Amino acid sequence: MRHEDYLEKILKARVYDVAIESPLDQAALLSRRLGNRLLLKREDLQPVFSFKLRGAYNKMVGLSLAKRAQGVIAASAGNHAQGVALAARRLGCRATIVMPVTTPQIKVDAVVSMGAQVVLAGDSYTEAYHHAMGLKRRQRLSFVHPYDDPAVIAGQGTIGMEILHQHPQHIDAIFVPVGGGGLISGIAAFVKRLRPDTLIIGVEPHDADAMARSLKAGRRILLDQVGLFADGVAVKQVGKETFRLCRKLVDSVVLVDTDEICAAIKDVFEDTRVVLEPAGALAIAGAKRWVERHAARDKTLVAIASGANTNFDRLQFIAAQAEIGEHREAILAVAIPERPGSFKKFCAMLGPRNITEFNYRIADAEEAHIFVGVAVRDRAETRRIVRSLARHGLRTIDLSDNDMAKLHVRHMVGGRAPWSGDRRAAHSANEQLYRFEFPERPGALMRFLEHLRSDWNISLFHYRSHGADQGNVLVGIQVPAGGQAAFEKFLARVGYPFTEETRNPAYKLFLG
After folding, report:
1. What is the structure's pLDDT at 157?
2. Measured on CA atoms in the order 61, 66, 68, 69, is the torsion positive or negative?
3. Which of 173, 286, 452, 475 allows an S-S link to 199, with CB 3.0 to 4.6 Å?
4. Number of helical (H) and strand (E) elements in the chain, helices listed first
5. pLDDT bracket for residue 417 (50, 70, 90)
6. Catalytic site residue from 185, 306, 400, 459
7. How many domains in the chain?
8. 306 catalytic residue (yes or no)
9. Residue 52 annotated to the active site
10. Is the domain of 107 the same as that of 236?
């Protein structure tokens, strides 16, 4: 199908039986801060708090009566599942949704409440998808793909149609969150036909950048693993049709990190009093990054607020990371002399700045290590603080971008063993430090422990959840000399994503 033909498909798409024409609202506070006019396309206000029902309904309403009577099936851990369930209820057909066993109960309950049957299978979307395809064949159901289907793409493309209708003046750029690519493909297919000078910019997390890598390589890339914080876009491989469209129509892709997503959630809350889900705030984070990178001023920008299905237990983590993501908090490790008056002198060096966090651990008779948070205006101020402390002879490391420090060490400062001398050295001998992502399901820890050899000792363990489908776990393991090859086989066999942190300076200062 030619990308030019999507214009007609979008104009004829049937979405308004279930969807609303969502508002295009100016984010007044954020616009002033950015020095640009930022408009939010409020898909979080849809009946299922996400844009996904547009594509799902357009696909399902186009099925023959016989196929609808047979029933539909989908695989999803979230918003697509709710879109299919709502569409099925509206059309009076049976819907089966296969969801990973790790799906939070609140999402399962939301789908069941709409009358769909939920089948829990597999630990990931990929496993749930394969199970769904098996059910599709056996029960002769119609599969509703979350993104790689022309009818789904056309349904999502009605968002682009609404944007141009609601804002007939010039738009410099439209920022769109990217998972499998259905949303950005639909928007780009419509907008580029009518306003080719408007930039279409995708936004992905650094740890789920399948589209960015694919566009760079000129072919679809399959990621080994993806981060799950922005679970709505946690896709290992983009669709065939969506990739084809994006290669022709998308101008660029911006990558953002978790801190920037959290800051964008806070920004939207301050403007609207609505808490977006991480994937829902992705486009706003991308717009901010793009403005900073290009020093853009007085531009008209649109960002898709794509969803607001937030788990309540994520809010604490989001709030903690938002200040760092906005570069309004610096996280520093500082070594100060272990003598009376040192802390007072250190605070005097910081001046009138607000100290947001202070953790202390004596290192030895000569030196103490401080883990400190300081309120700042931007990254430039952080750099000035580091230089000033260095001029006063205080060794300082900026940990503001150090994930292990932010997720674990800040909660563990003071956790060194209280031994000294030879016993302390023996205690930490051969210790290796790894940060794992454990799936949030019963038995995940036991699976990890069952693969450990009896002569390996766990010397440190810290778990930190932020409400996603995985937990962050920091583990210290003592591996005897000569056991490294066996240990590397263990890492491969247990199968959990990991990052080695043995040489991380935050570990050396506070935990090593």
Report:
1. 98
2. positive
3. 173
4. 21, 18
5. very low
6. 306
7. 4
8. yes
9. yes
10. no
